[in-house]
Every structure is written in C-alpha cells, then in structure tokens.
Amino acid sequence: MDHATHNKIVSFIWSIADDCLRDVFVRGKYRDVILPMFVLRRIDCLLEETKEAVLAEVKFQKTEAKMAILDPDGLREASGQVFYNTSKFTLKGLLGNPSQLEANFNHYLDGFSDNVAEIIAKFDLRNQIRKMGEADALHGVIEKFVAPDINLSHHDAIGPDGRKLPGLTNLGMGYVFEELIRKFNEENNEEAGEHFTPREVIQLMVHLLFEPVKKKLPPVITIYDPACGSGGMLTEAQ
Predict the structure, then answer these.
(1) Residue 67 gets which letter from DSSP?
(2) Given 3-state DSSP classes, what are the helix, strand and coil percentages for the chain, each rounded to the nearest 5?
C-alpha cells in the first residue's frame, strides 16, 4: 500500500473522532472507540463476501444436522477465515433499523466466533456502544466506518468519485493501526516511541539480526514475545 493511500485512510478515520465523538467522549478517550471500530470494520469486510455461505451453514447445522451446538470447523470453512459471524447482520445492515441499532449491534457481536469475541471483550467495545447509544452518536460512527470513501477490505473498490481504492492488505492494516496508535498517543502527550517502532527501523534491526546467521537457521523457529504490540517485529522477521 502506498503512502498516499495509507495517509488517506488514517486521515479519514482520524476525522471520525472529531465529527462524531466530540462532546460525547473526552479527547483522550477517542481511541477507546476508534481503534476497536476500525478493527471490527476490517473483520466485517473480510466476512462480507461469505456471509450468505455462513448463514446457509448455520441453517444446515440447525435444521438438517440437528446440532444443538454449532460446529465451528464447518463455520470457519464456510467463512474462508479462521473466524466467523453467525448473526444475520453486517455493519452496513445495522443502519437499516435505527430504532433498534444498539440492540442489533450487540446481537451482531454475539454472533462472532470465540477468537473475535475475545478481542471485542479486551477492547470493552460493548461499553463504548452503550455510551454512544446514550449520546445518539452510534449511528453516525457506524455510518462513517462503512462509508464508500475508504476501503478496508482486501479487494479493490471504486470510490464515490470514480477513483480506484486499493484493497488493504494485512500488512497495510498493521501500518494504519500503528499510525493511529501513534497519533492517539501524541494527542494524549504520551511517548509514541514507547508503543510504535517505525517499519524502517524494524527492517534494519531484522537485517542486522538475521543476515549473519540466515544460513544456519532451522526451518521453524518458535518465538514467545509477550510484549509484541501489533506484531511489527514478528511480521518483518517472517
């Protein structure tokens, strides 16, 4: 992903905070909404194209296979990902019923597989949804994140102005996420360097570390890093 596309996505997402969260959250708490919603929208995009297949698999397991508990392996196969969502909703679909938005949003979150549910819990997203619902800001935030002005899927798209919006790779997702963290930390007068290491620095570190021994490395290396952050070091080393 080129820097222009990267910066456009970051700027658009950054603007959501000022457009929708002002007077709802203090500025220092904007990231408590923006970061989880960004991650959720990315997951939502990845699952959109297989949504009907997953719902069909749910129906099969319940009605034909008579399963009391859904088989996650079948659902993962249907979704084409290591995660899935069994709710009938998507983020875009939630906007169709504003009067039930908060309830439907929670129903949507209930449909995620355990690995995504854990992420949602760590972000405390349900609490943020409640706060946005009480302040009548929830619809606006969702509407911004699903807007056609940015493309958070892995497929290319066409923007409202007719221009191509390149798909967002997993690496590009990492770049955007880290840049948002950096900007939020600077906004809160925190040291961005404590949380973010520029990719150029990571590339140099990886090169210096592995170049002298690259011919001696085993096929598989197991690494335990409890402070890996967004995984920049590990992805570059790979």
Answers:
(1) -
(2) 65, 5, 35
DSSP letter at 81 equals S
Query: How many CB atoms sit inside 10 A of residue 217's CB?
Result: 9
Question: Nearest Cα to 41, choosing from 161, 163, 160, 125?
Answer: 125
- Sign of the C-alpha dihedral computed for residues 115, 5, 12 and 44 taken in this order: negative
Residue 145: closest CA among 195, 205, 105: 105
Q: Residue 225 has which token pair?
A: 């890093």
Cβ atoms of residues 8 and 150 within 8 Å:
yes
Assess whether pLDDT exceeds 70 at residue 237.
no
> Rounded mean pLDDT of 63-86?
96
In angstroms, the Cα distances linking 104 to 16, 112, 152 are: 22, 13, 22
Q: Where are the domains of the chain?
A: 3-196, 197-238
Q: Which residues are registered as beta bridge partners of 157?
A: 165
Kindly indicate the confidence band of residue 206, based on its pLDDT and cuts at 50, 70 and 90: confident
The two tokens of residue 237 are 């080393």
**For residue 106, which of 89, 123, 126, 83 has the smallest C-alpha distance?**
126
Select from 159, 176, 229, 192 the least CA-distant residue to 14.
176
> Tokens 């819990």 correspond to what residue?
121
- Determine the distance from the C-alpha atom of residue 231 to the mean position of all C-alpha atoms in its chain, rounded to a whole number: 14
